[in-house]
Amino acid sequence: MTALVTASDLTIQYPEAPSPVVQNAAFSVETGEVFALVGPSGCGKSTILRALAGFIPYQGRLTMAGDAIAGSNWQRGVVFQNASLYPWLTVADNIGFGLKVRGFSRDAIQKRVTDLLETVGLSGQGEKKTFELSGGMRQRVAIARVLANEPPLMLMDEPFGALDAFTRARMQQLVLDIWKRRDTTVFLITHDLNEAIRCATHIAVMTASSHQITQIVPNPYQGCDPETVADPTLEQQIDTFRRDLLKAIDPTRD
Ligand SMILES: Nc1ncnc2c1ncn2[C@@H]1O[C@H](COP(=O)(O)OP(=O)(O)OP(=O)(O)O)[C@@H](O)[C@H]1O
């Protein structure tokens, strides 16, 4: 595998804030990984994602495929917790919006949108208005809209945080299915360690006061659902792995 994203000496300070939120951080995300970033609220996870998206300035080095990240770009698609869809457009037009802006032909857009509606389980719903959709359906549209651009990197900030447990589990499976079938790398922020264990190939940890990623651990349990695992031995192993992650997130914990 080769590094898709590389950060070194990465420092991010908001204007008027007394000190940097992220300081001298270093990490890399390899092509093909699902890289989950976990850590306590307010430690700077979304700040790193915003810098990766090109939404905010940073100091130090932050590159994608060797090029310094400067400004937003379709190659880094972002899915947030609450899908900000265009309410005046249909589902299909929301999904095809980026392609239209990029000058794709009407036929090419229609074909890709039809494929994506199927990928995210919304076949036949392209003409719906976004206000007719449930929360889970809206997130499917948001994911399809990002996938339409076929970005090498998908940035997901608590994408399923507002969904009920059942929908959340289905959406996690959807992301895993998409990741397996497409040539995409995923950077996922989550509060939910079980979500990280289920989805990620690698789990990166930030602590409350580190201002950087302190550990990146390969996850041997990707694809397992820690909440429903039936094998007691495996359940115990996952439990130990989860405890170790909790300890890494909060070293003061017993
Ligand atoms: N635009 C901003 N201006 C000033 N400070 C900010 C801004 N955005 C975030 N912060 C501060 O930066 C710190 C890190 O915020 P960030 O959103 O990156 O944390 P997080 O780890 O993603 O938290 P959460 O898990 O709650 O979403 C917090 O103290 C927050 O208050």
UniProtKB/TrEMBL annotation:
Entry-linked InterPro entries: AAA+_ATPase (IPR003593), ABC_transporter-like_ATP-bd (IPR003439), ABC_transporter-like_CS (IPR017871), ABC_transporter_ATP-bind (IPR050166), P-loop_NTPase (IPR027417)
Name recorded for this polypeptide: ABC transporter ATP-binding protein
Domain ABC transporter: 5-233
Organism: Lacticaseibacillus mingshuiensis
Alphabetized UniProt keyword annotations: ATP-binding, Cell inner membrane, Cell membrane, Membrane, Nucleotide-binding, Translocase, Transport
One GO molecular-function entry: ATP binding
Transmembrane segments: none
